[in-house]
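Work Package 3 (structural annotation) set out to generate three-dimensional models for the target panel prioritized at the project kickoff. During this period the team completed the workflow that converts sequence records into discrete structure tokens, so that structures can be stored uniformly alongside our sequence database. As a representative example, we reproduce one entry of 294 residues exactly as it appears in the project archive.
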Amino acid sequence: MELRQLEYFVAVAEERNFTRAAERVHISQSGVSAQIRQLERELGAELFDRSARTVTLTVAGKAALEHARAALAAAGALGRAVDEVTGLVRGRLTVGMVVGCTVTPLFDALAAFHRAHPGVEISLLEDNSDRLVEAVRSGGLDLALAGLAAAPDDLETLTITSERLVAAVPPDHPLAGRDGVTLHDLGSHRIICMPYGTGLRTVFDRACAARNLRPDIALQAGAADAVADLAARGLGVAVLSESMAAAHRDRLVARVIEDVETPALLALVWRGGPGPAVREFVRHTRRAFAAGPA
């Protein structure tokens, strides 16, 4: 017997009609009937009572049905198992990373994945966060590490960091002596911030818009180090996340922007129902970020 015969048998049993079963399996009714007859000859018993308008199972047919379903399920599982192995032997993985960031645990995850699955071709691309997320949605990227204002509802997300926004200034700046600052306090200062399309900038812009504030964005840079460096030279107040500012604590004082309560997120995003390479890379990423700081 053949798997296709079992497939046709199950289709007829469930549809209780040869015509509908033929439509379901996309062959002619005569083709379905011929294959069922062949199966019955091989088994030595009729599987269907064809005497009425509605096709019903015989006693032998009822006994065979669950076994046929189990055989088809096992064949499907076999195919999926082979696909899993093939995807990790000679697959391809395209990863996106937010521009201007050196994220060591992500590189550790890439290296660990490559050691475990050297046959998978890895690509790494940089872009701003908005475009990375759209590329994941469209299938241009398998995964991306992006800065977000909120986790997308339509994508799977692994949050790496969730941090408040801070104003970072040199120690002699007027804001340095305060315990905290507000968006209104920043209104009289030039702002140095990340560009549109980044999660941090989206959080900042939304908070300002909610209060009808229009900050003076004097300078923009895609890398947090560049934003901090410009602020350290007295060119304005840097708006950064807590960890971004902490990396420059030797020359900048960071104060939480108290009325920006929405955190900026750094997260790995991917589509639902991922293939084996994506699942494996997510596993390596979880392990890498758990082992060391972002």
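The longest strand covers residues 156-163.
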